Amino acid sequence: MDWNMANIRNFCIIAHVDHGKSTLADRLLEATMTIDARNMREQVLDTLELERERGITIKLVPVQMKYRADDGQEYILNLIDTPGHVDFTYEVSRSLAACEGALLVVDAAQGVEAQTVANAYMAVDQGLEIIPVINKIDLPSARPEEVKKEIEDIVGIDASDACLVSAKEGKGIKEVLNAIIEKIPSPKGDPKAPLRALIFDSIYNNYRGVICSIRVVDGVINKGQNVTFMATGRNYQVEELGVFKPDMSPVEQLGPGAVGYIIANIKSVSEARVGDTITSAERPAEKPLPGYQNVKPVVYCGFYPMERDDYPNLRDALEKLQLNDSAIVFEPETSAALGFGFRCGFLGLLHMDIAKERLSREFGIDLVATLPNVVYQVTKKDGTLVVTHKPSDFPEIGDIEEIREPYIKVTVFVPNEFVGKVMQLCQDKRGNYISMDYITPERVRLVYELPLAEFIIDFHDKIKSLTRGFASIDYEHVGYKASDLVKVDILIGGEVVDAFSFICHKDEAYHRGHAAVKKLKDIIPRQLFEVPIQAAIGKRVIVRMNIKPLRKDVLAKCYGGDVTRKRKLLEKQKEGKKKMKQIGKVSIPQEAFLAFLKTEEEKQS
Ligand SMILES: Nc1nc2c(ncn2[C@@H]2O[C@H](COP(=O)(O)OP(=O)(O)OP(=O)(O)O)[C@@H](O)[C@H]2O)c(=O)[nH]1
User: Cys-Cys link to 466, which of 125, 258, 421, 512 (CB 3.0-4.6 A)?
Assistant: First the structure.
């Protein structure tokens, strides 16, 4: 075939949140008339409703643009969107791998932030050509010359001829398009070699099944051809092949450097994982493209429906979510207090929040989530290793030799007036100081190592409020470290309530145990007998409070001998009892437990 790679440019846009990535993408689509202005709604690339509302990008959509440059030639520009959040780092790195270049967008007023650096480093690692774009130059507070210097000093790339842009006002867009054509190399690849195409995203569509976004690296892929997905070893026939313009538009063939999609009767995205390599079934490549990785959840929690009858719906909904998001895992779980639910694993807190919100919005399921947990490694005295994210699966305290928990390296960019507060917070969160440097006379980069468990509780919110939103945060996983952790159980009437057990540092056990016991005491209705509520480590009780007894006599109001009325009241009481959860001899309405978790959640958000 005659395949012209010289006029293809594959690029992505990387930026810190809110620096204007989506707005710039919109302007590029307009300027290349990929979407005419009449159909242009703002931020067309953010497809999910939730993304548009939250202003965050979750799913990637590659778009093909055509642009006639000043040299008179027509170029194909493939813009590959990347998710901006650390929860999706692996997806980011795969979409970067599908490009030769990146626009690094930096806000002209705010300057370089934590995610600017993290994303730029990832692009440098992938060997991409980076074009700095200084956006929002229309702002009165814009300081483009200083920001250029920041990019050079902190990111370490030449920014002397950075594009100066106002995406909002559409200024400097042509310069950006020209820079893409001049600076970003055209793709390399051998059209005669065996097919190798990278899957950098896959989405599930109700009508079409799975649609994989692919970047062809070597060889050609044809409609109707048989292909093998190398990580799973499965074979499929290519039903449809095409490009996004941005609507799906079928083609017969894609060659090296091309970005497009395939549809091949794939039932679930777990069969078409991001990072996998597609090759020809007849003439397979010897080696897959580098970097396939099975992403593992790092944060787990229980999801319980508020209405018991919603359990089957919740299972259906989770299955549907999983069709579209293979990083979600779940398994049934029962809890004496909460009834039937699911233990679910996520890539991070944002990922968890999104799943929860989608369950409620798209599937109408009202649910509560238990406190999130990380994955612990517990070495027992007999040498065996227990890897668990469930406090209830922890070995007995006497059997434990060592507990290790995941740590992250957190980088915070913060104005220097807030440095003291941020350092204090990091210390309180059991952080180890790593480094601090001034990136400008007013701004500081602080690096700490923290336990992930501390980070996921409320670190983001605390930092945002301590610094009035001026800090930016990024983190990466750095592995497991031994910690002095304990499991705290909560007992009601002498019985452990599984769903409320939690893992925390030894020094925090009393404080957190006390808070939980006090809250339960306020929530649980009084019973006919005294009910002790306790927090305990192993057999040792560390906090105890009692709920005073109350005699609830439903017949008290019935004077005289109206037998039918009495019977009715007793019936009603029996009905009520059915909804009760029995913890030992204590009956507690399930709502009380759900209310407990709800307030825990609210406290966090
Ligand atoms: N003044 C000004 N505002 C801009 C400009 N470009 C974008 N904005 C505004 O900045 C805000 C963030 O822009 P987005 O394009 O949503 O930023 P983003 O980087 O895509 O954000 P995420 O999708 O959350 O990563 C929006 O309110 C835009 O209207 C610009 O050139 N000038």
Answer: 421
